[in-house]
Amino acid sequence: MNQSIPEFLSQRLARPAAVFGGAVSGAGAVSLLTKIGATAVVYDRKALEFTVEASQKHGFVVYSPGFAPNHPWLRMAREAGCICMAEIDFASLFWRGRIIAITGTNGKTTLTEFLAHALTASGKLAYAAGNIGVPFSQLVADQEGGGQNVTAVCEVSSFQSERLGHFCADNLLWTNFAEDHLERHNGMEAYFAAKWELVLRTPSSRFFAGSSVQRYAAQFGRMLAPSSCVPTEGQPEDPQLEGSAFATYPQRENFILAAAFWRSQGMPEADLYAAARSFHVGRHRITRVATIDEVTYWNDSKGTNFHAVEAALSAFKKPVVLIAGGRSKGGDTAGFVNRIAPRLIHAMLIGETAAELGAACEAIGLPHSFCASLEDAVRTAASVAPAGGDVILSPGFSSFDMFLNYEDRGNRFEKAVNELHAARV
User: 189, 212, 195: which is closest to 101 by C-alpha?
Assistant: First the structure.
């Protein structure tokens, strides 16, 4: 890479950098550090612990999103005089191209993938990165820092945006806002403030906010420019989107926001509609798995919060059998159950939050079953779902109590459904 190391880091990187987290973000940071000629030591509780002694060996720390700003390792590093920087912030120092940041409680992965797809289809160089699974630092390393004609479409979570010093987007699209990640953020206003950091670092004329973001901004006393406010909820059907992933809600919200950005760039809307028709939503997002004995099974494992589940259920015309539960991320579980109950025939409850969910179901008389495993939930759902009905895995919670991640959970669900299908043939 030709990109020079900023002066404030050059002396620090004469020593090995400490990288906190051994998963994908940490690996991306190591790739970029190697690319710029630096060395790194990875610290991860599963392998190597960061200690007071270790802190004396480093002058610079790159940390993964899983490390909250008050994490003991970060406090230890700062006390030792280290500069500590979030992975996405570090990567931005070496990116020479354009950045479109995508954030929101739900829909941000699909919108990130779609915009990268649409820009590519219109003849531009664009790559999806960030929280989507390809760390921004990995993209920067792979693309040699990019260039003026290259666009990084970056999905940015609240974990990544809560403490930024260098990352600035050329454009920001904030899809929606709802209850989530309250195990990390101290209440809804703190969660909103973590995402608002992106707004503070983006020109107001290049920021687009969905309807729910506007409501919460007003509630929390944050000012939005009229040009930033995009009405994304309750919009009429668009015949040009018929047959595409964006024909109905919740994906309709993503297209409306993408179209607002697209128009601001002066690009032909016909190109965006063509891209919508050729785009396919990724797996684990309300994906049909199979129909068995007139019951259809749907994988929405990416539904890891209450808002996502409610959006998924709104796509079904009749009440469904829902498989829900996992590791809590905070929030009003009883309120969630009350809201979704009219859309359910029966709830199959799994994971660490099963008992809490069960108590909420019991309080309002919602039929429910406790299931020891996801496979058990699929079998039990098959026994109660009516002909012509639907069974949907849309957990509403994190997967980390029983699975490696939401992809692993979705794969296990699909395997269980396929095994059920084979047994019925």
Answer: 195
CA distances from 193 to 159, 228, 232, 357 (A): 11, 17, 21, 29
The rounded distance, in Å, linking the Cα atoms of 346 and 152 is 43
- What would the pLDDT profile of 301-320 be if each residue is shown by its tens digit? 999 999 999 999 998 999 99
Indicate whether this model's pTM tops 0.85. Answer: yes
Q: How many CA atoms are closer than 13 Å to the CA of 387, on its beta-carbon side?
A: 1
For the cut 90, the answer to whether the pLDDT of residue 206 exceeds it is yes
Same domain, 202 and 318: no
Hey, how many other C-beta atoms are within 10 angstroms of the C-beta on 383? 9
**From CA 273, how far away is CA 240, in angstroms rounded?**
7
238: exposed, middle or buried (Cβ count in 10 Å: 0-12, 13-18, 19+): middle
- Residue 349 is given by DSSP the state E
Domain with 47 in it: 14-88
Q: Pick from 298, 259, 299: which is nearest to 276 by CA?
A: 259
Q: Rounded to whole angstroms, how far apart are CA atoms 177 and 2?
A: 39
Among positive and negative, which fits the CA dihedral 23, 25, 26, 27? positive
Condensed to tens digits (0 to 9), the pLDDT of residues 111-160 reads 999 999 999 999 999 999 999 989 999 999 999 999 889 999 999 999 99
Q: Do 121 and 230 sit in the same domain of this protein?
A: yes
Q: What is the DSSP letter of 151?
A: E
For residue 39, the tally of other CB atoms under 10 A from its CB is: 12
Same domain (yes/no): 238, 312: no
User: Over the stretch 78-101, which tens digit does the pLDDT of each residue have?
Assistant: 999 999 999 999 999 999 999 999
268 and 313 assigned to the same domain: no
Phi, psi values for residue 345, rounded to 5° = -90, -40
Torsions phi, psi for 300 (to 5 deg): -125, 50
**423 Cβ contact list (under 8 Å, min separation 6):** none
- CATH number assigned to the domain comprising residue 180: 3.40.1190.10
